[in-house]
Amino acid sequence: MKTSISSAFFSLFLSLTACGQTTHIYLPDQTKTNTMLTDKIKNTTVKEAIYALQMANKQAWFSLFTDGAELYDDGNKMNFKSFFESAIGHEHFNTIDMVENNGLAVYGTFHSDKWGYFKTYFKFHINADGKISRLDIGQANY
Q1: Which end of the chain is less congested by CB atoms within 10 angstroms, N or C?
Q2: What pLDDT was estimated at residue 37?
Q3: pLDDT tens across 30-77, in order?
Q4: What is the rounded CA–CA span in Å between residue 127 and residue 18?
Q5: What phi and psi, each to the nearest 5 degrees, are found at residue 113?
């Protein structure tokens, strides 16, 4: 009985991941995992950015942005580079609840080591070269 349940679970897991419905993401401290419905994110650049954030991969994150990328946090202009130098590895999405604007706006439950858990939005602006030129983040009410 144990073998057939394990086999059934494994088959189900493979079928879900093969369909692209779920991505198993290891969080930065490697002691927790987070399963997220990343198929909601249709924009490839945004999906890569969210994945880099989740994996605490600063190199991958910064490579997706223009040199002069702008960051607005609840409408306040911030220094993009210094903000994410300290945030990556300490902040991540716990869930992605909805995606809008052709995959450029991502809403979900977010965790910050400093601020705890809250609902947030990330709104990406992508230039003609496919790089992110601006990111608006903030607390969301939905």
Answers
A1: N
A2: 60
A3: 444 445 667 789 999 999 999 999 999 999 999 999 999 999 999 999
A4: 31
A5: -60, -30
Place of tokens 């809008």: 100
**Whole-angstrom Cα distance, residue 5 to residue 11?**
10
**Model confidence over 99-122: pLDDT tens digits?**
999 999 999 999 999 999 999 999
Domains (range + CATH), the chain: 21-139 (3.10.450.50)
Contact between 52 and 38 under an 8 Å Cβ cutoff? The reply is no
Residue 139 CA: distances (Å) to CA of 55, 78, 98: 22, 15, 14
Residue 66: CB atoms within 10 Å = 15
Under 8 Å CB-to-CB from 69, ≥6 apart: which residues? 80, 131, 132, 133, 134, 135
Tokens at 12, concatenated: 């189900």
- For residue 41, the one-letter residue type is I
Residue 114: CB atoms within 10 A of its CB come to: 8
Prediction pTM value: 0.75
Phi, psi of 22 (to 5 degrees): -135, 140
d(CA 38, CA 29): 20
